[in-house]
Amino acid sequence: MTKTYAVIGDPIDHSFSPALHNTAFLFLGLDCTYIAYRIPKGELEAGIEALKKIGISGFNVTIPHKVDMMKFLDDMDEECKMAGATNTVVNNDGKLKGYNTDVDGFLDPIIKRKIDCKDSDVLLIGAGGAARAIIVGFSKQKARKITIANRTRERADELIKFARNLGLESDYLNLEQAGENANKYKFVVNATSIGLKGIGCPISTENINIDTIVYDIVYTPVETPLIEQSKKQGASIIYGWEMLLAQAMKSFEIWTGRQAPYEAMKLTLLGRF
To answer: Which residue among 88, 96, 114, 221 is least packed, with the fewest CB closer than 10 Å?
Structure first.
């Protein structure tokens, strides 16, 4: 019997997940299919009930449901508990278990490059759901300090508290100050959607230099304005598509128990840009 998987969120039509997972199923000859299912904000409970009714085997969770989905889980993994957000769910006969593959997905390209995070200082731009997973990731890698740069102070303060609870030093800068102080950080990470469709840069890049590692989790376009401008400053670059691919592979492995086909998924992903 065909197993069905999905990604839920709103908007959802831009999602690369169906192409990624369907390629992987095809490549390994698995009788599975993956669909995009739009669930608007405020309709999550009804949406999940509908998915249970059709016997969904598992699903990914994207904006705006990563945090709210936690209320509907029967069980969750450690990363999920720490981040307070889920992006991968397994359905066992109506019992839902949540995972957060964003944490390891985020770290994967850093680990692949053998970059040492120990005692490093991080400038994190943005205070949404993805930012939490990134903070958990850096705390696992024993970073020293995370500075949150965000438009509004209120959201940032929640994350500062969150980071401190994980044993990290943490403070706040506004976006202008973040640009001015960017050279003081080993990592500059963009966890906002600024740069999507090639529009806008979250901070000024003129103080980014050869010692800075710039990681933009926005993946369309591949070369966001932040990446493009930081490259000119000589910074090392980590691309959003690398995190997207790594977290998708981890979801695939949780669902199927099989090793995800990296090359096939990578080619599919890069072919979409």
So the answer is: 114
Closest-CA residue to 179 (of 199, 157, 152, 209): 209
Residues 248 and 209 in one domain: no
Task: Write out the two tokens for 79.
Answer: 């990363």
Distance between start and end Cα atoms, the chain: 33
Are the C-beta atoms of residues 42 and 63 closer than 8 Å to each other?
A: no
Nearest CA-CA partner of 36 in 9, 7, 16, 61:
7
CATH code for position 231: 3.40.50.720
**CA-based torsion, 219, 221, 225, 227: positive or negative:** positive
**Weakest mean pLDDT among 22-26, 127-131, 161-165, 183-187:** 127-131
Sheet holding 32-38, edge to edge: 32-38, 3-9, 58-61, 88-92, 95-99, 75-76
DSSP 98: E
Q: What is the pLDDT of residues 24-43, one digit of tens each?
A: 999 999 999 999 999 999 99
Q: Which two three-digit tokens encode residue 76?
A: 């969750």
C-alpha dihedral, 65 to 69 to 71 to 77, nearest 10°: -140
Q: What is the reported pLDDT for 129?
A: 77
pLDDT, average across residues 178-196: 95
List the CATH number of the domain containing 62.
3.40.50.10860
- Domain span at residue 208 reads 103-238
| Distance separating alpha carbons of residues 214 and 239, to the nearest angstrom | 9
Count structural domains, the chain.
Answer: 2
| Residues assigned a catalytic role | 66
Q: What is the pTM of this model?
A: 0.92
